[in-house]
Specification:
Elements: H1 2-14, E1 19-23, H2 26-38, E2 41-47, E3 54-59, E4 61-62, E5 65-66, E6 71-73, E7 82-83, E8 97-102, E9 105-108, H3 109-115, E10 119-125
Length: about 130
Amino acid sequence: MYTDLLARIKNAQAVNKPSLKVPFSNMDLDVLNVLAKEGFVESVEKKGRMPKRIIDIKLKYENNRPGIEGSKLISKPSRRLYTGYKDLRQVRQGYGISVISTPEGIMSNREARKKKVGGQILFEIW
């Protein structure tokens, strides 16, 4: 699940690892594609065949600082938070994004506002 994925990325960046391999899931791959498109990770690549499929993530660093400085989980199994596209707000004055699960797939808050679609806010990242 994406919560474990965020913890793995945070821990790998804390020790300056260049890349990371995580078990494959479709939701994790979609979340990572959004993070790669927004510039929080360098690249994402699906490798292997079933049942040993993995996702290879190349982490991003700028001047020895990690590309992801922090994250905050919004929706949890005990509390799901849904919002319409008009209520989506900026994260850290535009320096971060919210990742949202919509009927059209997983996307950032900027993309959801452009497409005028709301959904479940998964987490914020900056």
